[in-house]
Amino acid sequence: MITQDLQAALMAARPALDAADAALKTLDRAALAKLRATSAPAAEIGQVMSAVLCLTSRRGTRAQSIDTSWAEARVALADPDRLLRLLADLDKDRLPAERVEWARRLCAATDSAAELTPERLLPLSHGAAALCEWVLAVCAYHDAHVEAEPRRLDLEAPNLAES
Fold this sequence. Notes:
This protein has helices at 4-25, 29-37, 43-56, 70-77, 80-89, 97-107, 118-121, 126-162. The protein is mostly helical and 163 residues long. It has a single domain, classed as Histone Acetyltransferase, Chain A. It is elongated.
């Protein structure tokens, strides 16, 4: 039985998950190919691709050890179908908090630049704007999931003890 408190927490996570899925639906091979063709991207495009690489890197790797260079981004963009599958199939429930925070910092405002938003990136690149929307949605989902998970585990604990 799901408590109302847990149900509310789970419902709070759903819009972020839906937003991540919606962002992916706006991405296509052409937009990713255009991004890859950029030899020296605007800093904002590099930042959003670094956040994508941080979130999609192999599970268990520390954020600081992940190669988030533009060269590595171009490798990821070389196979648009694989990248789209990777984004869609990412296990958002098991993302290490350290990597989510790293991705969030990459998109955050700094002294020299405003916060990355899809609206800010759209004039530069449709693909980067969609990826930014995906990164922000995944981070928001992570926050809601982290809030709901202890409640879910508390609810499951008595059931596990009975088995």
